[in-house]
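Dear support,

We are seeing what looks like truncated structure output for some complexes. This example has two components. We would appreciate it if you could run it in full and send us the complete token output so we can diff it against ours.
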Amino acid sequence: MSTAGEDYVLLEEPSLTQVANFINAFKKTRVLVLYLNCEVLYKGRASSKLSPGDRLLITKPDGSLLIHEKTKREPVNWQPPGCILHAQVKGNMLVIRSIRLRPREEILVLSPHVHVLLAAPCTQGEFRLWGSEGEMIELVMKNPSLIEPGLKPLKREHLTPHGKIDLLCEDSKGNIVVLEFKRSTAQLSGVSQLKRYVDYMKKVYGDKCRGILVAPNITSSAKSLLAEYGLEYRRLSPPSRTGILKRTTP
Amino acid sequence: MSTAGEDYVLLEEPSLTQVANFINAFKKTRVLVLYLNCEVLYKGRASSKLSPGDRLLITKPDGSLLIHEKTKREPVNWQPPGCILHAQVKGNMLVIRSIRLRPREEILVLSPHVHVLLAAPCTQGEFRLWGSEGEMIELVMKNPSLIEPGLKPLKREHLTPHGKIDLLCEDSKGNIVVLEFKRSTAQLSGVSQLKRYVDYMKKVYGDKCRGILVAPNITSSAKSLLAEYGLEYRRLSPPSRTGILKRTTP
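Here is the complete output from our reference environment:
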């Protein structure tokens, strides 16, 4: 065992009992990384079984659990924050159980051998994002003529029974205009979403209503569906902070 | 440095040059886990900046990159498979760069200090999933009366310009029936998706067309939108393998 000034703990080839005790003691304060041989069973909205092998298991103080294999961006098994973690040794096996209550979902990790355990006090840093949909909406609220001359923003995040409208406007002819923003390529689902809002607004406020999908790009199938529905498209990219990588690179 | 039979490598408090060399040598064959102090810059579809702090960085042989903090199931920054990774030391900083070519996205990790580096030869295990949408569709194809008496399956995964229809059927009165399956609670977006398919089928084959959303559950807003569109709902849960966790627990 070794402890540094940063207060992390690293165990190499620990016993299963050591690991179980360690998980239960530190699961609420540290990010725990286990490199272990294990099989994984899941039961909840579906069921799955992962055959034995060496993989990474990560648990976080908020109850998240991730199991990563050799490839893919996504973990092969996972639990969201709010789950209850417990470890114990049964016979020759370390049994790690993560339970989600609603909906009920359970991950069971069975491990005959843990190679490495790292208890890492991780930061929750300040994360700043530019170029989000929120920033696109703000940009249009300040410069509505980016969409068309004479457009007047009325309300942001207008709640309907069929979802939240990004930005509600009025055009120069007195029509209500529903704007739906996508920060990357707009898809069929975005068209359907906009259609849902426009249908609702027409039902409530009458036919003087238009819908515009605002995105830096659109698929051809989404574009033709949009035309079919009598809805519109405006190309707009999220505002950029060019040079952010250059400025700060040493 | 320590190497076990499983051929993993663990470096504690390595020098930055050691880490850079190690990353470049093993990035294509091992899962690398770094517990390090770093800040992270991202530029692509949006831009972001993550303030300095201690976190986990994971790279995989397929080019995926994940940066995890103290909380959340999702990494704070990430790249998908297919990215190009490179590490070097500039001055007193370890600079790890991950580049995605299309769309162009870049993550830059700047680290003054690496606490731990683990090179882990992870498995790609056999993952078996039960209770998926695919299994629901198979269940209905074999037992169409679960939906309604006299229903006859025609075609699975029927492609339209507006997306793929899960299962196309014909009812006892000769209507075309579009079935859309969800393995968990059906939402507004599922209703819109079904509406899109039904609208298309009506346009092509005429008005003798119905749409049914099949799911174990549905939100109240989705249910009322469904009714408004004249579409239907059938409750059906994915087939379960009960006892899978019990059977295998030691």
